Amino acid sequence: MGTTAWQEVNWDLSKTVYWVCRSVPESSRMNRATAKHLIERYFRQLTEGCGNGDCTNEICASCPDFRSLDSNTAAAKALDLFKVNAKLCNPNPSKKEQDSDLVNKMTDVGNAKENFSDVNHLTETTVCTILSFCEEEGDYSTLIHVLGRIFSNAEALIKSFRSDEPDMSKALDSVEATAKDNPEKKTAGASSSAAAFPDEDVSDPSLKVLVDISALRRVYDKLLSLDRVDAALVNALIYLTPNLELDLEYLDVYGTNPEYLNIFVVVLENTNLHSPEYLEVALPQFCKAMCKLPVAALARLVKLWASYGLTHIRRMMETFQQLITFTVVSNDYDGENLVNDDESVVAGTQCLKLAYYASILAGDVDVEHNEEDIEDPESDELTLHELLGEERLYKKGPRVDPLQKELGVRSVDCIKPLIPHEEFVNESLNDVVEMDKDFTFFKVNAETKFSFQSCPFILNVITKNQGLYYDNRIRMYSERRLTALYSMVQGQQPNPYLKLKVRRDHIIDDALVRLEMISMENPSDLKKQLFVEFEGEQGVDEGGVSKEFFQLVLEEIFNPDIGMFSYDDDTKLFWFNSSSLENEAQYTLVGLVLGLAIYNNCILDVHFPMVVYRKLMGKKGIYLDLSDSHPALFQSLKELQEYGGDVEKDMMLTFQISHMDLFGSPILYDLKEDGEEIPVTQENRQEFVEMYSDYILNKSVERQFRAFKKGFQIVTNESPLKYLFRPEEVELLICGSRKLDFEALEKTTEYDGGYSKDSQIIKDFWETIHSFGEEQKRLFLQFTTGTDRAPVGGLGKLKMIIAKNGSDTDRLPTSHTCFNALLLPEYCSKEKLKERLLKAITYAKGFGML
């Protein structure tokens, strides 16, 4: 064994004894010194031998039959030999002299001042030894110097706090305890700690990171309570991180040595990283270096954090959120100085993504039950977009996050995260991000510019909806331009809009025929801006006519008498009627309407359970989804799972189930072949619950839902909808919010034609509105805006206008739903205002030219 290797082992042993001896009585120190000396002799015997070429001791390196050991194995073996008081060879004279010199050196450890310059990595033992030395000296300069030197050196950090390194201090504690229990023995051995030698049976190899986390956390607890330690660590990180960046970007150090990840594990266990001294320089630089790690390394970090649990993930999340917020509020951003160009914010966001996925992995996840995507038929012909060089803007297929792919889990797979999704949203960032610029980076310059839409978890629904709005509008303008080009080539009149002319009393038939023809002949026309005209009416569609069109179509389709959907009086929700007599085209129309509503930024009054939106986003319905779609069945199946008695005798259930058809007649269905003959037992009841749920939510409505989803995807297949939004957010996009804050609406309303917020009629108006009941408020909202729901972000985002429409009169108030404008005459009294307004909102229907 070389001198350097021996010095490393001897160093830890020497310092361990010094540290332990200071905390025990003088009488015990002699036993420690003896034990230490014997262990060292065993170690030398195993590594260097006794020097006798004819030695017959099988545990001596000089024995011809001895198999050589590495230093760590020899150290552990020395402890075991010490425990059983194994045979020690008499060393030759030169060996005795060496041992004598070593004992003298180690005896002087407690008296001579050390500078610890030979420490080339840290262990818990080493840190405790240096701490004890500094406490005795009353000066922590030595500790500060050692920390600065180790934490600024990548190689030193890789070797530090290793879980595969023997812990001598714990071994000696065990020696002393065993000696007390067995006084007849001179010595006793020690078994290695769990932290020092972790269980090799690790179910997930990616979690096997050779860092003793428990020891590391104990060390940080001791260090971070001391003055000057944070300053030393900050300076060390500032020195370290540029080297990490270079190593990762140009040298592929992780590919060569996967233990390079230890550096990031060790540094991120520092619980003070969120404090101001780190936030200014050290943490941003460290995050930038961490972003250089290959995807495989980042995935290992995510899985590791997920295994640590809620407290650790939340601390990571709060640390990166603090960095982002601190940087955003400390800077001024504008059109020239974009937050997308701030490397600290970008790095913090990319690191926050790791905590986000760790929260998903550590929560309830379903990666198995996935709906099959409806594939578009491939065409070998070049599209006009490709001919014009615009294929990057309109490329098909959803984006795939490389980290998501490496982990094998998506946001939509999450049933319940460990930390709610909302806590990953950073409102300070949302206030300064410019979505028009960010959208361009997202769609065109993704390789060279960072877009926050690539990390959608950090954006709120309002901000993401702006991104979707830009995407939809650009597609509309593009389709308009392509139509003009086609018409020029073919010499036809251009038709730049998706125009629907319908009759009120035949709205379903007219809409179905027209939309079905378009979807078959030229589906791209559905990407044009929608214009609706009601036959015989003069209204020009600036948005309001479309709103009423959507509303009337849905009222007709969801009419229980038609039988396309069943309605639950308890939940107030609709579900697909599995025995409906309507053809698939009707369901495709419903999907088209939902897609067009999102595409044209309209809010619909639809009432589906959440499982519908999960299925639209690619997931199958599972047992837990029954809780809101079929609550009575969910409760029954839950009781079956929890039943403690004899399931087979008491329940008398089989794998044959029944449900009612459209006419109230029972329909029998075998969940398994010959299901009537298979009883539900204690052993197979979980299988029964899963198959029952799968039938109700998936198989029984497969035909109807597939047609419905096809219609939805015809409009949204090229949209970033699935990438940006979670199922609950898609529901908010389609349906809006039922929470109506008229106080917020009053604050944002604008006035025209001579009115102001101080006009008496306006004061009377708002007092009247606030006195209305919930239903009357919804009627007013329907009358003024065309829908009784609040848009994404609440009523404060509505921008309603109240304009003067003449002096006192008996005429009713009118509205331009296209512009959210209310035309209000200046009535002579508050009573007349209320009477006229109630009549207007109660009986209004139809469009006319004013």
Can you summarize the main beta sheet? 4 strands, mixed
Give, in spatial order, the strands making up the sheet with the most strands. 9-10-12-11
Strand content: 5-15%
Shape: globular
Low-confidence stretches at least 5 residues in length (pLDDT < 50)? 1-31, 93-100, 102-113, 167-202, 377-382, 846-850
The count of β-strands is 12
Helix content: 40-55%
Helical/strand content category: mainly alpha
Keywords: Biological rhythms, Cytoplasm, Metal-binding, Nucleus, Phosphoprotein, Proteasome, Transferase, Ubl conjugation pathway, Zinc, Zinc-finger
Organism: Champsocephalus gunnari
Enzyme class: transferase
Domain HECT: 522-850
Which key features would you list for this structure?
850 residues, mainly alpha, 4-stranded mixed sheet, two-stranded antiparallel sheet, 52% helix, globular, disordered N terminus, ubl conjugation pathway
Describe this structure in words.
With 850 residues, the chain is mainly alpha-helical. 52% of the residues lie in helices and 6% in strands. The chain is built from 37 helices and twelve strands. A four-stranded mixed β-sheet has the order 9-10-12-11, covered by helices on one side. A two-stranded antiparallel sheet has the order 1-2. A hairpin with a 4-residue loop joins β5 and β6. The radius of gyration is 37 Å and the shape is globular.
